[in-house]
Amino acid sequence: METKGTKSGKARRVPLADVLLPYVKKRMQGRGPDALLFPPLHRARFLDWLNWGETGQGRTIHDLRHTAVCIWLASGVKPGVVKSWAGHASLGTTDIYVHHLGTEADAEGLALLNQQTGAQRGHTRKGGRRSG
């Protein structure tokens, strides 16, 4: 059976979280080192298998990839490592995902604003309570 390669034509390795290792090891039992853990699925079959029309809630499969990259970055994985895992050609591509996370500058700016008199949560600028 022919398998589809990556867009760049290069192989890439993506480490798995420890929580997934028992499942992967179970799938590996009795298989050779070059055996696939899962049979190749055509996109339509994969979406059907996941009942994606319902479980996807309007998202695309690519959104899962986007989510993974954002989780890696938010967890503190260095952008160069994320670039490698995602198979991005450049850090510029990986940086596209960073804007979804906010920045340290955002956090620092909000902290400064929150330290200002009258900018405490639940208060108006004059220090009165907000309604609603």
Integer average pLDDT: 77
Model regions low in confidence, pLDDT < 50 over at least 5 residues: 123-132
- How far apart are the first and last residues' alpha carbons, in Å? 62 Å
Question: What would you call the structural class?
Answer: mainly alpha
Strand percentage: under 5%
Order of helices and strands: HHHHHHH
Number of discrete helical segments: 7
Largest sheet: none
**In angstroms, what is the radius of gyration?**
22 Å
Total number of beta strands:
0
Large-scale geometry? elongated
The proportion of residues forming helix, as a percent range, comes to: 40-55%
Textual characterization of the structure:
The protein is mainly α and about 130 residues long. About 45% of the residues lie in helices and about 0% in strands. It has 7 helices and no strands. It has helices at about 20-30, 45-50, 50-55, 60-75, 80-85, 90-100, 105-115. The longest helix is centred in the middle third of the chain and has 14 residues, at about 60-75. The protein starts with 20 loop residues before the first helix and ends in a 17-residue tail after the last helix. The relative contact order is 0.08. Residues about 125-130 have low confidence and may be disordered.
